[in-house]
Amino acid sequence: MADVMMISRQITPFLVPGLFLLLLLLETLSPLRRRKRRRGPRYVVNAALTGLGFITGVLTVRPVALAGATWAQTHSFGLLHLGALPLWVQVAAGVVLMDLTFYYWHRLNHTRPLLWRFHNVHHDDPDMDVTTSFRFHWGEVLYSTAFRLLQVGLIGVLPLTYVAYEVVFNAATMFHHSNLRLPVAWERRLNLIFVTPRMHGVHHSVIGRETNSNYSVIFSWWDRLNRSLRLNIRQTDIIIGVPGYLAPRDNRVLPMLAQPFRRPRPYWRWPSGRAVVRPPAGEPPLNPKVMAD
Questions:
Q1: Burial of 48 (0-12, 13-18, 19+ CB in 10 A)
Q2: Is the model's pLDDT at 292 over the cut of 60?
Q3: Residue 117 pLDDT exceeds 90
Q4: Of 176, 167, 123, 217, residue with least CA distance to 12
Q5: What are the backbone dihedrals phi and psi of residue 155, each rounded to the nearest 5 degrees, phi first?
Q6: What is the pLDDT of residue 160?
Q7: Is 280 exposed, middle or buried (0-12, 13-18, 19+ CB in 10 A)?
Q8: Where are the domains positioned within the chain?
Q9: Would you say 97 and 169 are in contact if contact means Cβ atoms under 8 Å apart?
Q10: Using 50, 70 and 90 to split pLDDT, how confident is the model at 83?
Q11: Is the model's pLDDT at 152 over the cut of 90?
């Protein structure tokens, strides 16, 4: 346990912030989508929500998950302890199984109304870039502790596996939330295995059925296997956000923190009340100005 925490302290403080800053620079130099809002105010909101979520995670999710993984290792509990596996197999299989089970957890946060109230705060960001990566309501981070404990216990992951997964998970989350334009040919090849910015851009679309797709975090396989993959939508045709919460006054710290506890608005209608639908092929794309109609 002490060795695992030492590895975590040595790697995470440098890798995660370093990758964040690199992606922030790259997406500024080569953006995939045009911004709708000024970066400064968005960065302040995203930093505040990220900070609260990070504190909650450090105090609850990580210690509980590591304690659960330590208990599972000590008692040989969980799927990966049913047989004698080499360490590298345990770690690799643990990362893959944690990514698979998180796919279903992510999907539940979209399909269960109470969970969506909290997860919606992440999707309310009117633009998507690397600063969106960890913009989650602290309440969602807190209740996810129960899922993490169940996840590591049933799978039987080692503490080392959990730390490895946490690093890969954070790196993948920052990469696919970034507004980085990669050559289409590169992204198509990457997307055969990993979730990419264009794939996840669809997941943050104002079209409800598009948001309810592409749930994977690290490996894109899970959406293919579960028939929830949606591609072939041009990024220029995608408007980021949740239609019912796209007014500038909605994307402020206090409204975001209070939002899950208030009566929800119609999520998939513009503030004007008009339903949001994808125009048929050949017709003009969605126009953000319709939000004010």
A1: middle
A2: no
A3: yes
A4: 167
A5: -75, -35
A6: 92
A7: exposed
A8: 2-264
A9: no
A10: confident
A11: yes
Q: Which of 207, 238, 206, 226 is nearest to 215 (CA)?
A: 226
This prediction has a pTM of 0.91
Q: How far apart are CA 130 and CA 285, in angstroms?
A: 25
Q: Counting beta carbons within 10 angstroms of the beta carbon of residue 265, is it exposed (0 to 12), middle (13 to 18) or buried (19 or more)?
A: middle
| Residue 54 tokens, joined | 């990070």
The answer to whether the CB of 78 falls within 8 A of the CB of 157 is yes
Nearest residue to 8 via CA among 170, 167, 141: 167
Q: Which residue, 168, 197, 271, is CA-closest to 33?
A: 197
- End-to-end alpha carbon distance in the chain: 57
The pLDDT value recorded for residue 16 is 86
Q: How many CA atoms lie within 13 A of 203 on its CB side?
A: 29
DSSP string over 76-142 = T-SGGGSS---HHHHHHHHHHHHHHHHHHHHHHHHHSHHHHHHHHHHHT-SS-SGGGTT---HHHHH
